Amino acid sequence: AQKVTQAQTEISVVEKEDVTLDCVYETRDTTYYLFWYKQPPSGELVFLIRRNSFDEQNEISGRYSWNFQKSTSSFNFTITASQVVDSAVYFCALSEAGYSTLTFGKGTMLLVSP
Amino acid sequence: EAGVTQFPSHSVIEKGQTVTLRCDPISGHDNLYWYRRVMGKEIKFLLHFVKESKQDESGMPNNRFLAERTGGTYSTLKVQPAELEDSGVYFCASSPGPYIPTLTGELFFGEGSRLTVL
Known about the structure:
By secondary structure, chain A is an all-beta fold. Helix content of chain A is about 0%, strand content about 55%. In chain A, a hairpin with a 6-residue loop joins strand 10 and strand 11 (about 105).
């Protein structure tokens, strides 16, 4: 069975600080997909990224970057120069090949203060 | 284009009452999912519709929960009778393809319906 662990329940930083959100996953499949979603105060879950298990290249999108390491079963998310608008709950999720459902972690609440 | 819309945004009911949550997916999306997050816990899958058919309902907690999707458009999730442990946020999501990873790679989520059972 698959599992996603986000050990950090809540993180508080001051604007412009860099912050890394941790995600560790468990799966028996060799083909799987990892996701990050953002839940702002408005409530909806906003898709940020999808990564498949065969692509270990790190990805950067503006101030966001993701570090995928199969050796440690981790898919960490870093926000560089954080901003108040980054305040949200961030969820890491896993989907195994052939299944269309997501297994989520418990989420990490990020609070960025001015 | 309208996103996934859910109604009501918040519902407060007494234990034993009935509540019906509604989800309108993005137009043209055949796949509709219900997820639930109980406070402080993971977001958990409830069920998956492909058009009007239930593709996977393995996540439905018990027979107090009934989901329908009339004509393959909007969906309703009824909880009857509601219990305290049903409190949480119910998310609906839709996607245009059957398998997330091989097609769009993402689900489009609504803002959720918060259910509080007293």
